[in-house]
Each structure stands twice: as C-alpha cells, then as structure tokens.
Amino acid sequence: MKIAVLGAGAMGSLFGGLLAESGQHVTLLDIDEAHLDAIRQAGLRVQTDQGDRRVTNLEVRRPEAPGAEPDLLIVFTKSLHTRGALSALRHLIGPETFVLTLQNGLGNVEALSEFVAPQRILIGVTTWPSDLVAPGHVSSHGEGQIRMMSADGVLRPEVEATARALDAAGLNCEIDPQVWTSIWEKVAFNAALNSLCAVTGCSVDGLGAVADGRALASQIVGEVLAVARTQGVDIDAERCRAKVAHAIANHRGHKPSMLQDMLAGRRTEIEAINGAVVAKAGECGVPVPHTEILLQLVRVAEARRLGEVARSAMPDA
After folding, report:
1. Are 269 and 104 in contact, with CB atoms under 8 Å apart?
2. Are residue 131 and residue 148 in the same domain, yes or no?
3. Same-domain check for residues 114 and 197
4. How confident is the model at residue 266, as a pLDDT?
5. Which residues pair with 138 in a beta bridge?
6. Which helix (H) or strand (E) holds 240?
7. What is the pLDDT of residue 316?
8. Which Gene Ontology BP annotations are present (predicted)?
C-alpha cells in the first residue's frame, strides 16, 4: 500500500516506521523541519522491545508539498489542527484514498467529512505508547493494540486491507464493529486523567496521593459514560473505572500529553475531549458538573500559559 502519515510526532513516526519496516511504501508528512531533516539524513531511529534500529526506506515532506495520492492516509495530528492540516494536503486526497483517524477525542469524523467522502473514513483507537526522544528518534516500550472500523459501520475490503497492513507491522490491529465503545472509553479515560493532570501539574500516579484525586477521576468517568449512553453507546462503567485506577496505580511519573502541552505553552486538546463531552451533554440534558469545571479550569490555565509564552517572546523595550 501507498501510505501517508499526517503528523509525524511520537505516534505518527512510530506507526510510519513500523509500516515501512514491514514493506509498505510510507511517507511522513509534518512541518517539523528538524525532524524531517534528521530522517532524510540518517533514517528514523526506532527503539522498541524488539530492538534499536534505523528505518531508511521512509519518504518525508511537508503536507503542502506535491506528491502522489496515497491509498491510505493515517491522521495523527492533534484534533485542533485537523482542518488546517487537511487543507494543506487537500491535493493528496484522491477519489480512491481512505483516511484513518486514530486521534484523541470526539469530532474527528465530522472534521474529516469536510475533505473526504464519509464512506472512505475509518475510525479507531490505539493504546500504543510512544515518545519522540529527539529529531529522527522515536521510542516505544510495552504492548499496545488498535481497534478500528469504517465510520459508517460497513465492512469494506479496504477496511480489511488496512487492518492486515497494520497487523503485519506488529501493531496488533483488530476490526471492531463496536469501535465507538472503545472510543468513548478512551474519551472517559482522557477526560479524567488528562484534564486533572493538566490543572494540578501531577503525573498520573500523583493523582493517587490523596483520595480526592481518585474520587474526582471516578466521577468524571461516570459523567462521560452517562453522555455516551445518550449516543447509543453502552459501556461497562466498572471496566472503564478499573482502567483509570490501574493507570493511577501503575503509570509512575507519566505526564499525559495535555500536561506536556500545558508545560510547553502549547494549546491542548481539551476542546475535543472535555469540551466535546460538555457540548453533547448540553444537547441531551445530562449534567456533567465535574467534567465542565475541569474544562473551564484548563481553559483558564491554558490562556495564562499562552500569555506567558507570548510575553516571553517579546523583545525587551
């Protein structure tokens, strides 16, 4: 397959590297010139439990650069950048191109539908861990999986071909007709842990230092799942709470992406996670007070951080 990966950060680089290593024709699309140059010069260094090696058969370029239309476009940009990124590469989305989103949050299908026919959208969720260590260097340790399906629920041959390609790359991909259940579970997980860590500055395990942290996370999970049920998605609440509790107990020192963005003075994905839940809750009349307060707190903290970054960038008078 001709595969393009939009957003060659930690996850995009890991997926692109493993797919290229398995024999697919892969192009990484990103605007980080230092990262792209490092890959051009020496290949992508990939460290996993299977070893430390360099993948040298990757193509890299900016999204707006000319190129061939891929069979599959995998989107790994942050949700807030989806429309802008797809606008830059609209010329690469052909009538036969399928687009797979493995992004966090809700609203990704709606954004993709502005650029590609709905029947060509694939949606999924992944639990693979990945860190961008340095330009041209990605690291992933531990196991993960992908659950995916067409957004409209139709099992087309292209869905099966995509799953085979991802699975052959060692990414443990399963076709899941109930993929929306997995997506809402991850939204609940992220709404609880990402937002709490972002406003407290705690690592995930730090939330367990006092009972209040665990209780807040559990309450947010319950609110998100109540909204999910109004969308026809029924989730095992205890299973979802158990995943959150496991992360608090075991993810020692881990800083979720929302906290990393906050510390770096970048915009977070709060609107696609807590914000999207609050919006849907308002439409269906479900109260989500804890989720909404965390949304408001992250907005305030994010605005303060962005203001500090802007001021620090100003030249001295």
Report:
1. yes
2. yes
3. no
4. 86
5. 46, 132
6. helix 237-250
7. 57
8. pantothenate biosynthetic process
